[in-house]
């Protein structure tokens, strides 16, 4: 007991280590997959930042050049006015308001596609001159942010305004402005240029963007100047304070993540401040677009990892199942070995083995109970030890041929040469066994003593043969007696009819009554004898059907005509229901009429006065014909139905005792129906009545009208299909 427990403990520990190793490997696989997914995400973001940085650098340089071209014109204008002696606000206004200055501004403006206009504004905020027309309109611009900026003391050489609608053109633009100071440093005026926002939008539109990218120009304070794609009502809007835009501007540029302050789309933004101007270019890409490929790759990695994990789990499960199966197999093997030992010790069978020459090489000790020493049979063949080898050569010839073919055999019975002198019978079963190369090595099997079983079978066979002989003798006796009885019965019936007809002279009333009773009793006895003869011929297979094609209605009407007076005498209502266009049937007219008459007679016999009986015929769905007879008589239980269908069966109680019969009517009717290939079934309920159903096969139903009913040539009836006929049971 200690050794198996130790082995199980070792297997348990090994299984536990194996499980831990499997779980660890799964964790490593999942961690590696997660690391790969995260690394690819970082790569996608890094590539996006690199791309936006490169593009932003180029756009910042191009934008700076455009702004610089305008700024050079502003600086030229500033230098021209100072050289003209404009050192006070009044002199500035006199020098700046001339037509020559207007022409100068117009010429420079026409060379700048990005400029919407160039203007000179006095220190008081009044428009002095413009590149668009001369003389300039008197417009007060003192409320504009660039005028307020110039009027303040600051060291900024240039100013970019908040976008606004130009009063001269009506378009959105922002202004690039420079102060013009007098000799003492006081403000004498401004020179400024309006930059059309559409110019920057068109410039940004020309850039090839992907990943739902955008380009925008901002002031350093986060005020948006222009953007492509444009966002409605965002010109002049300002980024919130929590935006990473401000930090990156202070750092001189960089990338940050925006949750979507401008258009509601999360973006990776690269910020590029212009070195000489208070302007910032921001290039962005939508995070969803940037990570689209990453998500696809991540999904593939996840699916691959999932498949790997599932595959590993299935493999692990298979290995665990295999390990457990081995453990179960070992346990089963141990149990099987123990079971075989127990069976071998308790079984009355014994085990044997033969070699390639069919000589015994092993016999278990249980053969000693048979009166044989195993050692005396080693080296000998089974045929050498059989007492019936010569007496039954065919049996042994077949058995030896089977052994030569190396086929398994079961329950081969033979009689051995018993050492104790008693007759024995042995049943042996065996299977061939082979080596790994398929070479035949011999047989192994079991043997048991079946002497008692064989003897019992012989006794049973003899008893059965005796019973069959007795039954045959009974049938022959009944047939012979019936034949012997018919001759005197016919004489009795003939003489009784002669007496009834008054041929021998007139009879007194009482004598005529007695003669009538003699005739009726004789006819009843003759009917009983005919039934016995019919059953005997059916049992012997000698009753043949005389088949002809008949109309169903004529058959039913003929049977009803024979019983309607009896029904009327009992005040029983008899109804007939024949399906319209019911096809003709191929039957024995006499036998089928006998069946219907028997069933109708039983219905009348076992239905009380004033009861109801019905007979119907119809064509069934499977092509057969169905006759149904129903009554509301005394009815039967299932047990009584079984009795009524047996020969000479008598059901006790009720009307059955009033109307006694032979008990042959229903059995004979069922046999006659079966001769037609059909079946007779009964359904009944005590006190509610009985229904009998006879089914004839579709092969006995003709779908075409016969040339002359009852005169077509008969044909052989196929075996199955059925006419169903519901009829009351003959309990007599």
Total beta-strand segments: 23
**Count of DSSP H/I helices:** 17
CATH superfamily of the largest domain: PAS domain
> Regarding CATH, which class of the largest domain?
Alpha Beta
Relative strand content: 15-25%
What is the CATH architecture annotation of the largest domain?
2-Layer Sandwich
- Let me know the average pLDDT: 80
- According to CATH, the fold-level topology of the largest domain is Beta-Lactamase
Give Rg in angstroms. 61 Å
Assign an overall shape.
elongated
- Report on the biggest sheet: 6 strands, antiparallel
Specify the helix fraction band: 40-55%
Structural class: alpha+beta
Q: What is the count of distinct domains?
A: 4
Low-confidence residue ranges: 704-732
Q: What is this structure, in a nutshell?
A:
With 732 residues, the protein is α+β, with helices and mostly antiparallel strands.
Describe the protein's architecture and organization:
The chain has 732 residues and is of the alpha+beta class. The chain has four domains: 51-290, Beta-Lactamase (2-Layer Sandwich), CATH 3.30.450; 350-449, 2-Layer Sandwich (Beta-Lactamase); 467-538, Helix Hairpins (Orthogonal Bundle); 544-700, Heat Shock Protein 90. It contains 17 helices and 23 strands. The protein has helices at 2-83, 89-96, 99-110, 145-151, 197-205, 245-250, 287-290, 292-346, 374-377, 393-404, 451-500, 509-539, 552-569, 589-605, 638-644, 655-658, 665-675; strands at residues 115-122, 127-130, 158-160, 164-165, 172-181, 187-196, 214-219, 224-228, 254-258, 267-273, 279-286, 350-354, 360-363, 409-414, 426-434, 440-449, 547-550, 573-578, 585-588, 612-619, 625-631, 679-685, 689-696. Helix 12 crosses helix 17.
